[in-house]
Write a structure and sequence with these properties.
Helix 2 crosses helix 3. Helices cover 53% and strands 0% of the residues.
């Protein structure tokens, strides 16, 4: 007969186990989100071709820095 595993409850709050989980705890800065959105617009304007992510990101940074 199979035994049931006991659930052990810790008194410590759960901690994120990965860097991604830790990063998701903090809201994205407005600046990073603006760059991300503009880079995506550039990506779409170029026809959605993959392989130009860095170029799109850098162009978005330049455009947003010059308009500030």
């Amino acid at each position: 007969m199979a035994s049931k595993a006991k659930l052990i409850r810790s008194t410590e709050p759960a901690q994120p186990e990965t860097a991604v989980e830790r990063r998701e705890e903090f809201p994205q800065s407005t600046r990073v989100q603006e760059i991300r959105n503009r880079a995506y617009e550039i990506h779409l304007q170029r026809g959605g071709q993959p392989g130009y992510e860095l170029e799109d990101w850098l162009q978005a940074e330049r455009e947003l820095s010059s308009s500030a």
